């Protein structure tokens, strides 16, 4: 996102090749990194910090020296492991002895499924895919939760009617007031209906999963906006 110039060595002329506008700078993708103090010793930004610093200062000689020191330390560490018979066990990669290649342990080579896959993210070095069936499971749990509460509500209504029938005399008027009042039908129940029946909050698990899905939805919208910006 900075200026780029073309310098003609023969005649010394300089020409502007790229000068990003403020609008271009605003649309750049945000860089998300782990805080430096939270990185382990072998993460690239921490491991190569002195080389990077020298490059940023334009000191090529210092950068070469720091690179040599770093690589020599790695060679010495590998030599010590061989002498001690210590096996190196990578955290995120495995070695294929047949092809003599290293492969990411958690690689997912299946095609992207736009009907089921929502987003892919990285956590602790492990790539994971958020899938729609999570929301389906939440919906099933929510339905079960509602059905259980409807059953309890029906049972309470029957007990109430039974008490009303046993308490009133046989020749009592049909218009006698009762302390119990139940809806005519609870066969079909929407989310809003649940509020009227007195169980606005289904359960703690439903609430947590609803909040989790809202966060996922917000993240997906953010990704979609970023993709639209890239296409523009």
Automatic annotation (TrEMBL):
Residues 139-150, 167-188 have a biased composition (Polar residues). GO terms for molecular function: lipid binding. InterPro entries: OSBP_sf, Oxysterol-bd. It comes from the Eukaryota. Residues 151-164 have a biased composition (Basic residues). Residues 139-191 are annotated as: Disordered. This is OSBL5 protein.
